[in-house]
Amino acid sequence: MKKPWFFILLSLASRDRYGSDIQEDVRALSDGDVRLWPATLYGSLEELVEHGWIRELDDAEAPAGGASRSRWYAIQPEGREALRAEVERSDAVNRVARRRLGRERA
Amino acid sequence: MSRLARRSYRMALLALPEPIRAKHGDAMTALFVRDVARARERSRVAAALAFAAGLWDALRRGLYERVRPASATRSADSASTGHEPAHAPAPPSGEPFMSGLLYDVRFALRGLVRSPRFTLLAVVTLALGIGANVALFSVVHGVVLRPLPFGEPERVTHVALDYGAGTSVSVQAYRFEFWSERSRVFESTATWAHTSMIGNEETGERLAVLRVSHEFLEVVGRPPVLGRDFTAGDDVPGSPEVAIIGHDLWRTRFGGDPGVLGRSIELEGTPRTIVGVLPAGFDLPQEPDAGDVLVPLRLVADPADEAENWPMLARLREGVDRTAVRADLERVHAEFAAAHPELVDDDNRPLVIASYQELYVGSVADVLWVLMAATGLVLLIACANVAALVLARGSSRGGEFAVRAALGAGRGRIARHIVAEGLLLGGAACVLGLALAGIGVDALLGLYPGTLPRADRIGMNPGVVLYAVAAALVTGTGCGLIAAMPALRAGVAAALRESERGGTGRGGLRRLVLAVEAAVSVVMLVGAGLLVATLVEIRGVDPGFDVEGLLTAELPMPSGGWESGGGLAQVEERVLEELRALPAVAAAAAASTYPLRRGWNIPVSIAGRADQYEGAVEWRSVSTGYLETLGVPLLRGRTFTRADTEGAPHVALVNEAFVERYFPGESGIGQRIEIGRYDGRYIAPEFDVGGVEIIGVVGDVREIDLTVDPRRTVLVPAAQATPMLQAPPVLVVRTRDGGAGVASAVRTVLAGFAGGGASPEVRTMTEVIADSVAEERFNALLMAILAGVALVLTAFGIYGVVSYGVRQRRREIGIRVALGAGRSTVARLVMKQGMVPVLLGLAIGVGGALGLTRFLESLLWGVEPTDPLTILVVAVQLAAVAALASWLPVREATRIDPNRSLRPE
What we know:
The structure holds two protein chains of two kinds.
Chain A: H1 3-14, E1 17-18, H2 19-29, H3 38-51, E2 54-56, E3 72-75, H4 77-105
Antiparallel strand pairs in A: 1-3, 2-3
Helix pairs in contact in A: 1-2, 1-4
Chain B: H1 2-13, H2 18-42, H3 44-67, H4 97-114, H5 116-145, E1 156-162, E2 167-168, E3 170-171, H6 173-182, E4 186-190, E5 192-200, E6 205-212, H7 216-220, E7 226-227, E8 242-245, H8 247-254, E9 264-267, E10 270-277, E11 293-296, E12 310-316, H9 322-339, E13 351-354, H10 356-361, H11 363-396, H12 398-406, H13 411-447, H14 462-501, H15 507-539, E14 550-554, H16 568-581, E15 585-591, E16 600-606, E17 613-622, H17 626-630, E18 634-637, E19 651-655, H18 656-662, E20 672-675, E21 677-678, E22 681-682, E23 692-698, E24 713-717, E25 730-735, H19 740-753, E26 762-764, H20 765-772, H21 774-808, H22 810-818, H23 823-852, H24 868-894, H25 898-901
Parallel strand pairs in B: 6-11, 8-10, 17-24, 19-23
Antiparallel strand pairs in B: 1-2, 1-12, 1-13, 3-12, 4-12, 5-6, 7-10, 8-11, 9-10, 14-25, 14-26, 15-25, 16-17, 16-20, 18-23, 19-24, 20-23, 21-22
Helix pairs in contact in B: 1-2, 1-3, 2-3, 4-13, 5-11, 5-13, 5-14, 11-14, 11-15, 11-21, 12-14, 13-14, 15-21, 15-23, 15-24, 16-19, 21-23, 21-24, 23-24
């Protein structure tokens, strides 16, 4: 899964967020490694919406607080599922990696 | 700052498709501005980086959004980029024409990526053509086209001496003053001299100083940015010493201090008050390295000083045109003759206006334009090749186009797609071409003998890049249009038919293109051939002396000066003695100069004939043994001996050309001539020795250049040379077997005499001669390279056409073989496809060459522009290359197995 997608989903997994909030959260999550510049951020959000992994909240659903004109996004069940699959895949790779490294040390 | 950020980002957002832009544009812009502001809090650099990163991100995303397939499905399984449909996806709805073209570009891009070999070949071919072109253009632009860095450069002009056959850059001081005062068309005039002065007594650091007349900065239109310009008062000898310093010097030595005015700078131990600072980037192309400091010239014009040392630059009054200037110059010329009749003689040459180009760039411009035209031709051939490649690819895609047509794409649509491909190829070639051009320019400047004027500023400037982009656009669209023509003409049905049969229809166009390529190649090959022939002709000239085994060197000055060695003559004597003692040295001598190196010329009169004199006879002062060392034949009489000393009767040798002119049919021996006398008057009293007797006649030597006929020459013994012309001589050494060891032995001997560990330069005469033709060699080399590239590209074209023909006619060939045709018949059949266009091209090319080569005339010597031998050689070359290029496809054709070729598709 592409890095921006992974981190956006991760960010939305905890709660619904709007655009610049996602950007800051992702930066915190990745320890400053992943910077979502505006075009990549919103472009990826659109792609994720197209895929059906996240959705845009209507004005009625948007929580109070934050700029009134911001768009809010929420993760979808399919998105959560994809995220979980990705984490598991990555876990598997890490397990193999650890085993190999452990073997070398011996 | 944030307004700039906002505006820039809005523009970058145009890269994104409309839907995204409309929906998120505001939010994205706000986010970007906030990011940049946050980065600004950290540092300016961080802000700049954030600015750039954000814009780049927008552009990149824009491209991505436009190229990626619009996935209409919301499937959870295609987690990555999704599937790419084999055929074009439906174009986005509701969008105007422009995005239609963008859509075509997107599709064309994918098509190109899927045929990497074709794309690579096409891009590289075009890039070579564009690169060569851009390289030459940037040189031409930098050297010839660029206006001088003066304010209103069209009003600035040189004023030069008209020699009839040419112009001399510099004029006499008194003429400069007279014209400056009396002329009515010049707003201001200036002259200068450049020199280097010690700017720091301790470190001995030298500064490049321009001594200028007080109107200098007015004429060039670059007033000081700080302080004031020189005044007429500063230009008067005895007034306080002042200086205007250059911008760089101001920054490095005075730290850019605005209070620098009034401080002083020391030059050659004399303090001068700084009154002004020059603008940054101040540059006088006529003196490329000067300009650290400007000081007043304080020219004192003495009419007796006839030295032409002073270049004259003038700023014309506004609205004055050439005719007015010419009339004014004539008027002042007449006034001058009236005011100074004693200075007016037969040599009273008028002043004329001349441009920097004429005086300083001169013949270099010719060479550059010719090379530029040549690269244009190479580009033409490259385009033709790429067009052929695209056509060939197109014919194999007939089926694909047919399907697209069935899906609703019209002819225009398909054509537009093909043009889009051409544009993409052109774009990629532009980028690669610019990189190649950078290398090419460096190579060109490195190869050029000597330095090109204004070469320091040659580089990638906006004009050059624009030219490259324009070239890429034109070639890309051109290739695309050519390739699209069949699709436009024939339409869908024909495309279907062609794809069945293998597309014979397009062969005609390809053959025509090949003929054009061949013609262009021929023109270039003829040009290169003529330049090479010129080089050969020049090298074949007999210089009049023995070149092989001859060394030249300068007489080394002892570290304490000539006096410490006992005087110039003593040093020369001892050096020659030691050189002659070397076993490998057959003869050694000294002279005022050696052939092909600049020497003096002087007026000579024939004694007793009041009307026979001339102004410029080549004058050489030589030691004994000069003729033997050089290998110049003594035709009559005797050479100099040790008896021809200062007190002895004055004697001279003259060359055959001299005798033929003044003593035709006679031996010339015993005749008397007066060296230094012109029209009854000696140019300096020292020359009046009562005449000189001719004691011998020597063979003609090409003293000036191999391309110049031998001038009339007079040789005098060094001991009898007029004192005012005596200068440290050069040495010539004839070696016994001309090995490299001799040169170093000579060097060792000379180093022994020279002061301070200097390593004296010893050159062979062969090197000297090679240097004298360095320019012709450069021309021939470059033209040959370009012609070679053209020929190789044409060979590819021939190969393409012939092998294409073979593919097309597989069936036909199979049938013929089955019916009993032999291999040679098949070979002839196939080769005709390639040879006919080539021969046609040859004919056109020869015709074109005959017409165009007159543009080369200024670069040729000893060769006619219509030299038949060269043309014949070129024709043979082309035929040979054509045969070679056809060989592989012909071999393939003769191996066609009728059984296989006749099977149905």
